Fold this sequence. Notes:
By secondary structure, the chain is an alpha+beta fold. The chain has helices spanning 126-129, 147-154, 160-163, 200-203, 278-308, 321-347, and strands at residues 8-13, 22-26, 29-35, 41-45, 59-61, 64-66, 73-74, 80-82, 100-103, 106-110, 134-143, 179-182, 187-196, 212-221, 225-233, 247-259, 262-271. The protein folds into 2 domains: 8-119, Rieske Iron-sulfur Protein (3-layer Sandwich), CATH 2.102.10; 123-334, Naphthalene 1,2-dioxygenase Alpha Subunit, Chain A, domain 1. Helices cover 22% and strands 31% of the residues. The strands form 4 sheets. Strands 11-17-16-15-14-13-12 form a 7-stranded antiparallel sheet. A 4-stranded antiparallel sheet has the order 5-6-7-8, with no helix packed on it. Strand 12 (179-182) and strand 13 (187-196) form a beta hairpin.
Amino acid sequence: MSFLRNAWYPLCWSAEVGEGLASHRVLGERVVVYRRTDGTIAALEDCCPHKFLPLSMGRRHGDRIECGYHGMTFDCTGRCTSIPGQEVIPATAAVRSYPMAERLGLAWIWMGAAEKADESLLVDLPQYHDPAWKAVHGASLYNAANYLNLIDNLLDPSHVTFVHGSTLATPGGRDVPVQSEKTDAGVTVWRWILDSPPIPVFAKTGHFKGNADRWHYYMFTPPSNCIIDFGSGEPGALTEETRSQGLQIYACHFITPVDDENCIDHWLHVRNFRIDDPVLDAQLNADLAGAFNEDKAILEAIQEQERRYPERRQIRLAIDGGPNRMRMMMRKLIEAEEQAAAGTSTAA
């Protein structure tokens, strides 16, 4: 499987990166990550070029890594600075280094050409930084499923009625049409469900004595970021433009493609109500974790079926407009990147 490489991918939570050497896998590659003495994050290919021992099994000397097998030492750029027993260091004694950045509580890695890394391309959510909102980190959920299947799920309001009845749905949403469009940033899918019972997550807050209007906007930006804006208000009180006056939550999913068949969903939520209530923090995170584990069961079963029936093709339904747009967008981005790389290689 091909991946978009000139892009930022979430690697782990920033708080998880410390002085120790930690190995991660992304796009099928292993990287070793650690925090330098100046507080910034370094990432190197997790493979000594001598006998291929993972550098994560070595030890630090300041900001350098000493291989745990024969003591070759590498700096943060991946250059070998010393080899025990010899003075000459071959030009091939080097490992790849990766640009890193931090945002939204996560450590991000650039998997493509280092000179193209641009922090302005990092995904952001203004409400995360706004003191009028509360950002609550969730977890890193491992899915034995392809990352595009997870993004399909996160652009699919229609499954909510059937999978998340105890948290995010009520029966009234099963036949409400789904809208989708390609935007400059990515793909957006949305629908409003009017004058119906509030979903369990909002019913628990006690804000609604009767029915509510509710919305769901599912927003994808390449390569693997999904932010779901959902909320509720009194019937007839809110519009698309004024929905922030109601109860509003952003459920954020920043996905690490581990390889072709596995991914990690780093999720958090940001809300505009009861922002000083730690009990609600825990309650909402527990409800969301339950819903995302329901998705995990579905997606892992689908992955197993895809492995079992590699020649079969899925049928497409009207509700698949958003996922179809996302897949076409990703395919075009990957093809354009591969063609550009091939042209550069041919020219060279």
